Amino acid sequence: MVAPLFTHAGQDLLVQSVLAFSARHRSITDPSWTRTAMKMKGKALTGLLQRIRSPDVTADVILDPQVPATMMFLCLYEILDNGDYRWVFHLRASQDFMRKRQQLALPSSKNSAFGSLAAFSERYFAFQDVISRTACGNSPIFGLEYWQRPDHTEDIDAWMGCSPAMASVIFKITELARTRTRDMSQGEYEIQVEELDRELTLVSSNITVVEAMDENVRRCVDLKKTSVQIYFHCLLRDADPSTPQVSQLVIKVLHSIHGLIQQGSAAGLLFPLFVAAVELDPLNDDKIFAHRDQGTFLSGRQLVLETLDAMIGLTLANVERTKAVILKMRKGKNVRKRGMSYGSVYVY
């Protein structure tokens, strides 16, 4: 999707952002690339700001697909670099930029290769917003209407690891939890929880053609469905790691992730792994996974940490930051507290 732009003149901005992100990713295993990555990011960021901060931004700039794509790669860079608040700047800027783009874009432009790149960039930011809010609980930047657009199919998006319908459910779970204490009686809240439970069950039961044809995709999608179920019960029904249903689902998620990692597949696994790690029962965590060859057992905590180590080099996610957050939570700090900014560890 990005490659065609490299064959056209005038795409220096996107090229710089791709090279910057690539250099930063390389620097994880080869620190000598760190300074090069910083220089490339600086050039890409300067070029981007010059284009979008110009007092006379033209329609050509707004419709240029390399602008949102550049924002996406710079956002990926910041997540991989520090995983702090800086990636959110790109998220907020992208929402405003894409809103202006939709006002100007012609229907035919959406079907072009360049239009597809812009649409992918928008979906990246919208989904990043959804996933990050499962941890921080902030107000949404991309609203629910994005996921309910009539042009969104119900097919699985292999990059997200779920369908737009499931992304919509995740959005609703987070939003209901965020607003449950605002002008809502307990009865009204319980009715909405039941409605959302039915919607989650319906979406989870849908098996698409993509899932039926590709075993790895099916397993990744099933993982996302299971982790959303854990998230739903813990956030809206006040379940905890000792709840039998949660405990069983957590073990299922960890075993499935281990199997996929053994096959060299790590795409889209960080959210399920993070959810499972947060909801591990510390009082029943000794023998979750059996090493068949060695005849020994691994605790859930050991399995999570070994899985994170195995994911280095297989994913674009900030694995080290994820590990640090999980270790902090496993020490008993904020295990049940929602509202801390952990969302920046995710990349999908």
From TrEMBL:
Protein localization: Nucleus
GO MF annotation, one: DNA-binding transcription factor activity
Alphabetic keyword roster: Nucleus
Any Gene Ontology CC annotation: nucleus
Biological process annotations from GO: positive regulation of transcription by RNA polymerase II
Superkingdom: Eukaryota
PANTHER family: LYSINE BIOSYNTHESIS REGULATORY PROTEIN LYS14, TRANSCRIPTIONAL ACTIVATOR PROTEIN UGA3
Name of the featured protein: Uncharacterized protein
